Amino acid sequence: MCKPMSRKISIALLGEFDPTFEPHTATNAAVDHASAQLGLDVNAPWVATDEIDTALFENFHGIWVTPGGPYNDLDKLLWAIRYAREHEVPCLATCGGFQHMVLEYARNVLGLQDAHHEEYGEPATCLVIKRLDHTLAGRALELRIATDSRIAAIYGESANRETANGESTVIERYFCNFGINPEYAEQLKGGPMRVTASDSEGEVRAMELPGHPFFIGTLFVPQVRSTSEQPHPLISAYLRAVEGAYRA
User: Fold this and answer.
1) Cα–Cα distance between 48 and 101 in angstroms, integer?
2) pTM summary value
3) Is 7-247 a domain of CATH 3.40.50.880?
């Protein structure tokens, strides 16, 4: 009996690959775990940020802005994130990728044109992303997921339920030393992107863009919890969205 052909999609893993950095090797593994679960043939090469060009979205059906930073070419990376946001290309951003998703959003949606990231070491008066007072690197912490959010639907029954406010909770790991500057948190919350996961003190840990096929960023690193037996639900949902956008 002939086996059914795998469905093929291509995603670009944006960032400078480091085989000694756990979130990078975990990213590759998580793609394999989720693609096997979904029966997808996923082409997922790494694309260094200084190699991003206008052909990126001719060759790939989705992008994943991977952990890392500072990236080799900030401007090219922000261009890719903006294109994905404006043209409904599925985009997942984790850890440093989330920080840069927020940076692009602050500049081009909220109008904070001089918004910057402290890691780049340039003089800046609008540090939307700054060094955390207490590093999250190496920590596993509880997250509270907003009800009626896409992330809540993705986690589904794998999340713990419920807090007194009706939120669900999950435990996720971090590898970051930078995050959203609390001084700009309210401005970020006032735009079209929705804060959909926070820590126990209300600090922003994930955001999503309603109405987009998939535009989700997480400060945590979901891929490190993925296994072949239990692919991470966020990664599986992202690949499903990429396939759906490609087939549409």
Assistant:
1) 17
2) 0.93
3) yes
